[in-house]
Amino acid sequence: MILKLKMKKMEDKHLKVSINKEPSFTEVWYEGEVVYNGQEHRFWLIHPRGKDLNGNEYEVDVRWFFQKVPREVRAMIPYIIDAFKQKAHDSTDSARDPKSV
After folding, report:
1. CA dist., res. 75 & res. 84, Å (int)
2. Nearest one of 21, 45, 98, 33 to 69, comparing CA atoms
3. pLDDT single digits (tens) 66-97
């Protein structure tokens, strides 16, 4: 699919946007929370499935439900992702609570 866009301030320029017809990958979204000073901060952990053309895995991401998240909680993103990756590669935790990472 090719879109021809005409935008203000770009009338004299040509812009080409192309979008693949087939999805490149799919994402699985998990919900989680961090409790900090007694306050719950909910997030989605986004796990893209598949690999790019060179065989590289796509990056896992965390997005917060709401904008007001303390800096200290936002700084936990690498730890949240590491915990998820450890759990994903740990085949011995079948007896654990599936909601807990």
Report:
1. 16
2. 33
3. 999 999 999 999 999 999 999 876 755 444 45
Helix spans in 1-101 (H)? 71-74, 77-89
**Domain map (residue ranges) of the chain:** 23-89
Per-residue CA distances from 48 to 23, 45, 51 (Å): 12, 10, 9
The torsion angles phi and psi of 74, rounded to 5 degrees, stand at: -60, -35
Q: pLDDT averaged over the chain?
A: 83
Spatial separation of the C-alpha atoms in residues 42 and 62, rounded to whole Å: 10
DSSP 3-state of 56: coil
Burial readout 20-55 (b: 16 or more C-beta within 10 A, e: otherwise): eeeeeeeeeeeebebeeeeeebebebebbeeeeeee
The reported pTM is 0.65
